[in-house]
Write a structure and sequence with these properties.
Length: about 200
């Protein structure tokens, strides 16, 4: 099956969102930051170049407003992507979600409903607001091991100053995310220990 991704290329945005993914999943995430805009389809009926030419110059997209949805006993937390030019255009086609238009970037996946609601409240409070016009369309074939030429991003070579100066993120965002997860796991362990003690 084939999908078409809109892949964000700006290092600071990729770094901050991948960092949040890593913190919330408790394991390192180094993947593309992307929006699935088309698929699944059995054949790649259109190539990336045609899509790259379709919206030229590329419109600016906004990344903000967290949300949650559930699918097959899993909960997903995402940031909504705003791009009015995409709505109603042939660029958007998702057979599994016909009649809906909800472009987004998934930040977290879990089967823990309590945890995802805590993270959702955290993200609402943080009020992240990002803008990007630096992206590309990338064809993805399901079950393929290497989908992209990933860039190994880390804090040393990623400047968050611009995001901070434009107030797109608040200082200390990642530290607060780490604290949230640490406190949650500590509370869970204490609860389980107390229950075992009662037994």
């Amino acid at each position: 099956m084939y999908f078409l991704f809109l892949e964000i290329l700006e290092n600071d945005i990729v770094f901050i969102l991948n960092s949040l993914r890593s913190i919330f999943s408790q394991k390192e995430k180094k993947a593309s930051i992307h929006i699935t805009i088309r698929g699944p389809e059995k054949e790649p009926i259109i190539n990336e170049k045609k899509f790259n030419d379709f919206l030229s110059p590329p419109p600016q997209i906004g990344i903000r407003t967290p949300g949650i949805f559930s699918f097959k006993n899993q909960y997903y937390l995402y940031l909504t992507v705003y791009c009015p030019e995409m709505k109603g255009s042939p660029i958007w086609k998702k057979p599994d979600f016909q009649g809906t238009f909800n472009p987004h970037i998934t930040i977290m996946e879990t089967d823990d409903k309590v945890l995802i609601n805590k993270v959702y409240k955290f993200m609402k409070t943080e009020n992240i607001s990002l803008l990007s016009s630096n992206y590309r369309y990338t064809l993805y074939k399901q079950k393929q091991n290497e989908l992209f030429d990933f860039t190994n991003l880390n804090k040393k070579n990623t400047d968050l100053g611009e995001l901070l100066s434009r107030r797109r993120i608040r200082p200390g965002l990642l530290e607060r995310a780490v604290s949230l997860m640490s406190n949650y796991h500590k509370e869970t362990e204490e609860f389980l220990h107390a229950n075992n003690s009662v037994k």
